[in-house]
Amino acid sequence: MNPETPQLPIDYLNQIAPPPQKQKLDKKSLLLLALLIGGVLMIVVSFLVFISNHSGGPKADMQTLAIRMQNLQKISESSQKNIKSSELRGINSNLKSFLSNANRDIAEPLTANKVDIKKLDKNLVAKEKTDTLAADLEDARLNAQFDDTYAREMSFKLTTLSILMETIYKTSGSKSMKEFLVATDDNLQPIKTKLEEFNQTNR
Predict the structure, then answer these.
(1) Exposure string for 60-99, b = 16+ CB within 10 A, e = fewer
(2) Which of 7, 14, 18, 166 is deepest in the core (most CB within 10 A)?
(3) Which pLDDT tens digit goes with each residue over 148-199?
(4) DSSP state of 119
């Protein structure tokens, strides 16, 4: 009888084959890869800068601030005749004066930041419309609750205004805008405090 031929393992060829060599990137390939990654990073950074300037960045916030102050000035002026309390009329007179000065003074720092106060973003203008507030104040007038409603609403609006100014201060590198924000917020706080005190005494 012939001796049986020994059975070779199935992966015999794999075992005797030399291990595959790992491909190494040469210097030219590495340089090309680095340039590609650098290009992608530049595109991403450019996109983020664009978004910052056009969608909620400092310039958009500056425009929002200007729009909001203009709207508040109109409301304070139109509301004066409806206020019954002599104390609140005095507070509102100070508020009107404050907003008038702030709307005048913001023009220069806006210009320094390439924002035209006469050509503010229409989408931001639409977003800041005060139709709801005007309707609430009219309902309050018809129900003989104008003073309380007005003081409460304007106190809230001034709080949001102060928060927006703080946000712009932290995100803007503009010296003129920061100086405006500090001076404006300093003048805003006493009026806001007076409105809050009026709210507390009339609860």
Answers:
(1) bbbbbbbbbbbbbbebbeebeeebebeebeebbeebbebb
(2) 166
(3) 999 999 999 999 999 999 999 999 989 999 999 999 999 999 999 999 999 8
(4) S
Tokens of 1: 């009888």
N-terminal to C-terminal alpha carbon distance within the chain: 115
CB atoms within 10 A of CB 117: 16
Residue 150 CB: number of other CB atoms within 10 A?
A: 27
Q: What angle do CA 55, 57, 61 make, to 5 degrees?
A: 100
Q: Please say whether the beta carbons of 65 and 161 come within 8 A.
A: yes
pTM: 0.69
pLDDT in tens, 111-147: 999 999 889 999 999 999 999 999 999 999 999 999 9
CA distances from 29 to 33, 36, 42, 49, 170 (A): 6, 10, 20, 30, 43
Query: 162 near 185, Cβ under 8 Å?
Result: yes
CA-closest candidate to residue 106, choices 50, 188, 37: 188
Q: Report d(CA 199, CA 47) in Å as an integer.
A: 46
* Whether 172 contacts 58, CB under 8 Å: yes
- pLDDT level of residue 202 (50, 70, 90 thresholds): confident
